[in-house]
Structure formats: structure tokens, C-alpha cells
Amino acid sequence: MFPVPPVKIKEERPDEAEIRELAAKMVEANKAKAAAAAAATTMSTGRPNMVQPGQAGIMSYLTRNNPSGMNKLTIEKKSSATSGDKKPACDEESLMGRFGWVTLGKCHIPYIFRNGEKYCAVRMVENKLLNKYLSYLHSDIYSCTCVRSYYITEAEAKLLNEINLKHCEGCFGRETFTTKDLVVRLQDAGEFYNFLDVCYNKLLLSSSNPRDKCGFIRINGESVVPYTVREVQKFVPLFYFEGETDSLKLRAEKLEGWDLAYLKFCCKVQGIRNELFASETCSVISLNDIKSYFSPGTLFEDYWPSRVVDSQLLLPSSKTGTTMASGGMWTKQPPVSHSPVVSSAMTVTKTSYRCASNEKHCCSEHGAIGEHHAAGGM
Fold first, then answer.
1. pLDDT band at 49 (very low <50, low <70, confident <90, very high)
2. 307 φ, ψ (degrees, to nearest 5)
3. This protein's superkingdom (predicted)?
4. What is the pTM (predicted TM-score) of this model?
5. Helix (H) or strand (E) holding 323
6. CATH number at 92-205+313-372
7. Which of 93, 160, 215, 275 could form a disulfide with 177 if both were Cys (CB 3.0 to 4.6 A apart)?
């Protein structure tokens, strides 16, 4: 037998570095696969508390029984906000029985409240305060003023009836107050009374006084110019001085309101054309400024014409039985088409309108003047 040669085993060179490199690549590949799998899982599950496709949201529960699809919660919030902004009724204080007294020309006149402001009934003012003047003064004088009147509500009518019958024993008449009656602001009623008193006395007495609210200035015994007093200064209308208007306009002021009413009255007494003073404002200039345009020694004196009765602004006593302007004809009345505002609370509120002092106030003889409330009103 022949001897078998020894088998040689191939000796591989060590490649540990290559193995480590391959292992590192496998680890990186596994990490990439794990990251991709995690991202896919996150996309499929979604973020917490988020509605998934096809899942019913919370709004579906709010609108499930609402065919219009509106959010009832939103509607409730809007309605509560609207109710919070709603203004109280204008006669809310009349529903509580609140009223007061004021003295005008030695007459005690009751007043009611509207949104905190004082108002008085036109019929009451006419009955006790203005009756003398309305009987003797021509209605053309009323056009000098602009007193706005307003219809009363059911609550106000009820309160005025209680005042008249229970506190004054019917001294303002037995006719019931209704929503067809009118009220004016108490301040306007007082101003109108003062205006008529001045007009009446000026026409009746035909006298002039430097302290009067209005009158005429006679210049050198010839020219006569009307004036009215505002803040202790006398003002005359600018249109009386046509030749000097360009220079006077620089010092001119606007006259309006009750100050203008007195000036309009004087213009009517003098017979000035209505279109010259028909506006609600009038350009005027102070008498002191006018005097600077005249030569020294010019005489300026207070004056009142003696033959005013011929103008029919003061009616003769023989006609007084048929000429009294009643029913608020001296006011600027609201449109007839506008019905009075009726408080919705009238159907649920019933108040006894007794004076808190439990004292009866007669319009001709009561001492305590002030505000009162119904016993159960506050």
C-alpha cells in the first residue's frame, strides 16, 4: 500500500474587521425598520382624543335632536347676552308707584319718572298752571317754542289716576287718564310757564324793565331792535344790521332753545316777517358789540311798544270762553300712527299707589314737596 499523503486544511486569514462591519450594518438596518414601524403605528392610531375617520364627534351629540343643526349651547349663550343688554321699560318706575311733587308758580304739580327723568301730565299742567295764560294769549305765540310731548303708557295712566283721585281728591278733573293723554318733560313745562308769564305780563302791562328777559332797544329815539337776555348779556338779531353784516359776522353767535323763543316773541310783537326767524337757530350779536359801531353819545334805551293789543297776541276778555288751547295744542305732539308703548309687566304687576308717608296731597294745599313711592313698590 502506498502511503496516503497528509491532507492540508486551507487556512483562512482572519477577517474579524469585516464581520464587525457587517454586523454594524445589520444593526442600522434593524433600527431603520423599527423606526418605520413605529411611525406607521402612530399614523394608524392617531393622536389621543382626536376624532378618527368615521367616528362620531361630540357635536353630533349636541345636534342629534336639533333638525336645524344649530348649537343649542351657543343659542342659550346668545339669548342670555341679549337679555342682559335689554333696556328696562320706560314706565318701570311708574309700575313701582314712584312719583313726586314740584311747585311751579305757587301750584303743586305731580310728576312721574321715565328712565330716571321727570315728566308731568299735559292735562294737569294746563288745568292748574297754564289755564290763565292759555285763555288770554293767542296761539300764534306757541309757535315760538317747541315743547315735545309723548303718549303715556297704561302703567303711567293708572298712576296718574291714583295721584289725582287718591292724593288730590280729583282736583285735576274727573276725566280718567288714558293712553291718549300726553306728558312733557318737567323742565320743559317749567320753561314754558316762565315764557308764557313773561309774554302775558309784557303784553298786558306794556312796560319795559332793564331786568326783563326780553324787550326792545330804541336807538336815538328812532330805530327799534328786539333783544333777549342770555347770561346777563343782551343779544340782538344780526339781520337787523344788513349793511354791517360782513364785519359783524366775526362776532356773531348762535342763539337757540328758550333764549331764541323770547326773541321770536319780540319779533312777532313788532310784526317782523316769520321767514326771518323761522329757523331753530338765529345769528345774534351782543348789544355791547353793536354800540361800538355807533358814534359816541348815541342813546340806547329800553323800550316796549304801547299798542301791542292791536296785533291780537293778547286776546280780549270777551273771547276767553272759547279760545283756551287745551289738549296739548301748545306742544309738538307725537305722530298719531305711533301707538303708545304698553309695558308688558302690566299683566303681572299690581301695585297699590299709596304715598309712603300715607299723607293725602291736594294740589291746592299740601306742604311736603318731594318724591314718594308706593307702599309695596320698592
1. low
2. -115, 60
3. Eukaryota
4. 0.67
5. helix 320-323
6. 3.10.260.20
7. 160
Distances in whole angstroms, Cα of residue 264 to Cα of each of 103, 181, 290, 324, 340: 28, 29, 20, 22, 33
Q: What is the DSSP letter of 251?
A: G
3-state secondary structure of 102: strand
From residue 223, how far is each of 118, 157, 228, 301, 340 by CA, in Å?
44, 53, 17, 11, 51
Query: Which of 7-21, 151-165, 244-258 has the weakest average pLDDT?
Result: 7-21
Largest CA distance in the chain: 182
Judge contact between 218 and 224, C-beta under 8 A.
yes
Grid cell at residue 196? 308764557
Q: Shortest CA distance to 191 belongs to which of 220, 151, 221, 148?
A: 148
The three-state secondary structure class of 200 is: helix
Interval 31-44 mean pLDDT: 72
DSSP class of 335: P
| CA distance linking residue 354 with residue 374, whole number of Å | 5
Looking from the CA of 149 toward its CB, the CA atoms found within 13 Å total: 24
Question: Which residues lie closer than 8 Å to 82 by C-beta, 6 or more apart?
Answer: none
User: Sign of dihedral through CA atoms 238, 244, 249, 250?
Assistant: negative
Q: Which single residue is written with the C-alpha cell 300712527? A: 337
Q: How far is it, in rounded angstroms, from Cα 119 to Cα 241?
A: 41
pLDDT digits (tens, 9 = 90+) for 64-93: 555 554 444 444 555 544 555 667 788 888
- Sheet of strand 253-256: strand arrangement: 253-256, 281-286, 233-237, 223-230, 214-219, 300-303
For 264-312, the pLDDT digits (tens) are 999 999 888 887 788 899 999 999 999 988 889 999 999 998 765 445 7
The SS3 call for residue 226 is strand
